[in-house]
Structure formats: structure tokens, C-alpha cells
Amino acid sequence: MMLLSIPGFLLTLTILDTGHASTSGPNVASPEPEVSGNGVPGSESNVLHSLPRQAQSSYFPSLLLSAFPEDLEVGDYCRELLHIFGQRYVSYVNCLVPSARPVKICQNCHVEFNNLQDIYSNISSEQLGPGNASCRDTLLRSDRLMLVFQLFHDLQQIWAISNCARCLSEGGQSLSNVTLYYMATLNQSLSCFEKHQQGNHSELCKECKKAYRDLNELYSRMEKNESLCLDIEDAMNITRKLWSKTFNCSFPREETVPVIAVSSFMLFLPIIFYLSSFLHSEQKKRKLILPKRATSHTNLMNIQDRSRSEQVLHGDYR
Predict the structure, then answer these.
(1) Which of 52-56, 154-158, 297-301 has the lowest mean pLDDT?
(2) Would the pTM of this model clear 0.85, i.e. be above it?
(3) Residues 79-96 pLDDT 10s
(4) 24: which of 47, 106, 131, 242 is 20 to 30 A away, CA to CA?
């Protein structure tokens, strides 16, 4: 056994020495391998950078996953749900960005949001998948970051702030009838603006007055019924800017009539107060003067009676 191993060992040394001599040459010290900033030897780092990105991503996981137990790995069922979640997340975001201005999130993206919500419900469900796999624990609670939860929560906040549920039917599958009617009324006003905007704006104000008034009244009713979402609010703001600032149109609103009446009453209220006070004081003055005149007349009569009595006593009275 020893005799067989010794020739093999000598052959190995000969090959290594030959390879070293052919690469380094005589009396040349072999250089130390350069170390890059990430702690990877320079030659290996260059190899990694020269690889395609997909090859790089497969290089490291092959090293990492080999060290994890099998029970900590994500199962095929949960990995498939995660893949679908990623696709629907991207689809929803791709819909949100073009619908940012003017705001049309609820109109254009309700299908994408419902799809994203459905797949997240499957992930967060307590129902076990194939092989008794719980994707909720694996994908949502297995680390401190909880990335899947955070991604969905942020997009759900956008949907909630926009009040999109108010503009959709039950279940959120389509726009409600009230929303569709508002959009049709809005299109009538915008069509009238487009038709008359090239001419005199005074003509536009006259011709489009009824359509714009109907739109405002409908918006007020929807506001009282809490049927407004961000899409409708933004569309109404843009329409009002066109009417008042761009076309310089206006019309007296019915709500201003009571305001004018109350303001006029408050304006004349001090005048009415001072006038009534003056008349009341004059009447009091007359009541105070009358008793004085009556008293003086009574005294005068008493004086006359006394003088007559004195004349009778002295015989001067005839």
C-alpha cells in the first residue's frame, strides 16, 4: 500500500512543480491575490462581474441555500403565490403611475387592485396549502422586514385615501351607476366647453351655463350622500377652474340669496334700533310732562277759590 502511494505522491509534486515553473518563471515570486472591497479575491471578483446578472444571482444562492435546512425553505406552492403577487403588484403600479394626473385611479385601476387583493388574501389566509404549507407564516411573518405585507399595505393606503370604494359597485368589480351618470354629465359640460372655446367666451358662458349648473347640483347631491371619490373631486376641481379662471364665467348661485338677505337685515338693524329707541324716548317724555301740567292747573284753581272766599268774607264779592 505504501509503495503504491509514494509514486503517486511524487507524480503529483512533479506536476505542481512543472505548472508553477511554467507560470511564474525562474526567480520570480508569485504575487499575492488582490482582494476587492467586498472581501472577494480580485480574480474571483472579476469573474463574477464578467458573468451575466442572472448567472451572478444563481452563483450566491447556490452557496447560501445549501447551508439551510430543508424545513426552512419556501415550498413550491408558496413560491408560486409569491410569484403571482409580484406580477400583480407590478401590474397595479403600472396602472397607478399613468393615472396620477388627472386622477383616474378608481376608474382605471380597480381591476388590478382587486386582483392584487385576491392574491394577498390567499397568502394571508389561515387555510393550509398543499403539504400543510402555511404561506402566511412563511411569507409574512418569517422576518422583521415583512416585505410582502409592507408592499401591499402601502398600495392599500393609496386606495383607501382615494375613497375608491365610494365610486364602485358592491364588490368593487365595476363603477357604480351614480359615478357613470356623473361622468356622462361631466362629458356634456366638457363637450360644450370644447365647442365654444374658440369663439367669444361670453357666448360660452351663456351656452354652457345650464350644463355646468346641472353638474354642480349633481356634485352637491353626491357630496351629501358621501358618494365622492378622488377621481370625481379632482375632475370637478379642474372643471371649476376652467369655468371661472380660463373662461372667466360666473353665475349667481341660489345659496347667495339668503346670505344677501341676512346681510341686508344686519346692516339696517342698527338704524332700526336707534329709530325705535328715539320714538320710545319721545313717548316717555310726553307721559312725564302731562302730570306736571295737571298739577299746575289744580293749584291755579285752588288759588282762585281762595280769592273768591276772601272776597265773600269782606263783602267785596258781588
Answers:
(1) 52-56
(2) no
(3) 999 999 999 999 999 999
(4) 47
For 81-140, the pLDDT digits (tens) are 999 999 999 999 999 999 999 999 999 999 999 999 999 999 999 887 777 777 888 899
Long-range contacts of 114-121 (CB under 8 A, 24+ apart): 114/172, 114/173, 115/88, 115/91, 116/85, 116/88, 116/89, 116/91, 116/92, 116/152, 116/155, 117/156, 119/81, 119/84, 119/85, 119/88, 120/85, 120/148, 120/152
pLDDT band at 232 (very low <50, low <70, confident <90, very high): very high
SS (H, E, C) the chain: CHHHHHHHHHHHHHHHHHHHHHHHCCCCCCCCCCECCCCCEHHHHHHHHHCCHHHHHHHHHHHHHHHCCHHHCCCHHHHHHHHHHHHHHHHHHHHHCCCCCCCCHHHHHHHHHHHHHHHHHHHHCCCCCHHHCCHHHHHHCCCCCCHHHHHHHHHHHHHHHCCHHHHECCCCCCECHHHHHHHHHHHHHHHHHHHHCCCCHHHHHHHCHHHHHHHHHHHHHHHHCCCCCHHHHHHHHHHHHHHHHHCCCCCCCCCHHHHHHHHHHHHHHHHHHHHHHHHHHHHHHHHHHHHHHHHHHHHHHHHHHHHHHHHHHHCCCC
CA–CA dist 104, 88 (Å, integer): 19
The phi, psi pair for 10, rounded to 5°, reads: -65, -40
